[in-house]
Amino acid sequence: MAEHTSSSITIEAAPAEVMGVIADFARYPEWTGEVKEAEVLSKDAEGRAEQVRLVLDAGAIKDDHTLKYTWDGPHKVSWSLVKSQMLRALDGSYALAAAPGGHTEVTYQLTVDVKIPMLGMIKRKAEKVIIDRALAGLKKRVESGAAAGSADGAEKA
């Protein structure tokens, strides 16, 4: 059974602003170190991404895969692997909780299982790197105000 890795960070913004950045898949390559391409393949009845194709380069884990997203209210999104070249499982979630001072506590949970043999400690290290970089990138993106940037995708300096 695969073990999961999780970590949390506090972001100086309201949960809705944080979730707005999380839900904007087209801009993932701008702020995540590992996602090189992101393409929304389908949307749910509310217009939220339902299936997303991602090209990932996380050092030990490189892949072109499709994830299915499940939105649980305005403060949680989960995903699971639909198809992949290298991965057997890629399940995770972002859970947001309002924190004092208008801040948001973001908890990212991730489980990765690869098709090729890989030591558990290497797999967990890769999960930790993905989580830490994603949370740091999310915090920087939201707090810089780039989430409200121009429609052409140009990031604020």
What's the rounded overall pLDDT mean? 85
How many strands?
Answer: 7
Q: Helical amount among residues, as a percent range? A: 10-25%
**Strand-and-helix sequence, N→C?**
EHHEEEEEEH
Return residue spans where pLDDT drops below 50 for at least 5 consecutive residues: 149-157
Overall geometric form: globular
SS field, number of helical segments:
3
Strand content: over 45%
Structural class: alpha+beta
User: What is the CA-CA span between the terminal residues?
Assistant: 44 Å
Radius of gyration: 15 Å
Spatial ordering of strands, largest sheet: 1-7-6-5-4-3-2
The description of the largest β-sheet is: 7 strands, antiparallel
Task: Describe the overall structure.
With 157 residues, the protein is an alpha+beta fold. The protein has helices at residues 15-22, 28-31, 120-143; strands at 5-11, 35-43, 49-58, 61-71, 76-84, 87-99, 103-114. The chain has a seven-stranded antiparallel β-sheet, covered by helices on one side. The protein is globular and about 45 Å long.
Q: What tags apply to this protein structure?
A:
alpha+beta, 157 residues, single chain, 7-stranded antiparallel beta sheet, 45% strand
